[in-house]
């Protein structure tokens, strides 16, 4: 039995679909933190179970009979470590044999604010003694392409990544990698640094949007501080979230999101989704 946390989320749903293509769906369980979201999972033909990180007993109950668990990192930045700890402890108590965790690219050395809780979680998994696989996912291409239509409308892609090279991949790519690890042998104890095959800058990203849309789009590089102000005042993002995005872009300028290993495409046995394909899908 394979269980997936955050199964109703964007990545979680894609993992369930990828698993269905590789193993009988009756051996798949989708864990959701709020019972109202169970329908999202059951509509995919997968059993849903309630597992609230803040109620450890529900997590232990949800893991009954589960041998492999994919812990998709919580979306609540700042609370991730404690929430992940609840899942790890429940997995140990329930006899889970393999724990797979979605971490961050080079989490152990990354300067990004986001890396700290991933690093803490990796250590907790190691300390638990459970056989594990760490999937250090790079940036989702969707983090940028979700703003493609706005870029066409305004004529600008705004960021603070300078000329930093980005090796991003789509959620579908990362979901397939998780499904491969969960359904094939030989991965226990490994850490995979996962990123897209193609390196590009945000100027390249803007140029590709312009090419596909036929509209003039240029990249406007800003300082970390100016970009933070843009995110809060123009984009209307909450300050804590905006700070994370500004920090991530600034770190990307120094190469934090670049990776030329092509480990992801090797793992899924196909090229990672190209930037052009992702922009096309978004537009």
From TrEMBL:
All copies of domain NmrA-like, residue ranges: 2-254
CDD domains associated with the record: TMR_SDR_a (cd05269)
Record Pfam families: NmrA
Coiled-coil stretches noted in the UniProt entry, renumbered to this chain: none
InterPro entries tied to this protein: NAD(P)-bd_dom_sf, NmrA-like, NmrA-type_oxidoreductase
Name of the protein: SDR family oxidoreductase
Organism name: Halioxenophilus aromaticivorans
């Amino acid at each position: 039995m394979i269980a997936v946390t955050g199964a109703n989320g964007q990545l979680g749903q894609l993992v369930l679909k990828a698993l269905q293509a590789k193993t009988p769906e009756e051996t798949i369980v989708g864990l959701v933190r709020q019972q109202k979201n169970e329908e999202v999972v059951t509509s995919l033909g997968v059993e849903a179970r309630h597992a609230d990180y803040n109620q450890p007993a529900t997590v232990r109950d949800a893991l009954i009979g589960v041998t492999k668990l994919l812990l998709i990192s919580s979306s609540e930045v700042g609370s991730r470590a404690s929430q992940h700890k609840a899942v790890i402890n429940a997995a140990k108590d329930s006899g889970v044999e393999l724990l797979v965790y979605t971490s961050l690219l080079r989490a152990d050395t990354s300067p990004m604010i986001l890396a700290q809780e991933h690093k803490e979680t990796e250590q907790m998994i190691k300390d638990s003694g459970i056989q594990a696989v760490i999937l250090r996912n790079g940036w989702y291409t969707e983090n940028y392409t979700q703003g493609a239509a706005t870029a066409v409308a305004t004529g600008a892609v705004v960021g603070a990544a300078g000329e930093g090279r980005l090796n991003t991949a789509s959620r579908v790519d990362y979901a397939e990698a998780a499904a491969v690890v969960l359904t094939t042998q030989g991965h226990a104890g490994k850490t995979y640094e996962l990123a897209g095959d193609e390196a590009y800058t945000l100027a390249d990203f803007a140029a590709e949007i312009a090419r596909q849309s036929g509209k003039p789009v240029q990249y406007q590089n800003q300082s970390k501080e100016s970009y933070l102000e843009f995110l809060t005042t123009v984009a209307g993002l909450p300050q804590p979230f905006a700070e994370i995005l500004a920090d991530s872009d600034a770190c990307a300028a120094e190469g934090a999101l670049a990776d030329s290993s092509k480990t992801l495409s090797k793992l899924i046995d196909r090229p990672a989704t190209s930037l052009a394909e992702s922009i096309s899908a978004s537009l």
